[in-house]
Amino acid sequence: VVDLPVSNATCPAFGGPDYKTLFISTASQRLTKDELKMQPQAGNLFAYDLDVPGLPEPVFGCASWL
Prior knowledge:
Helix content is 9%, strand content 27%. The chain is mainly beta.
């Protein structure tokens, strides 16, 4: 569980050379002016160092015979 200082987390992804960094993008759209004042970091990208690695995203490509 990762507690964020914002309400709209959009997309977590593992990265870094060993996949031990968790990146979480957030959104500021659809927040009221009051909500934006309470969440000034909305819309930022957060990075957290972890003790365990994540997995890389699978990469799809063309077949080698094409």
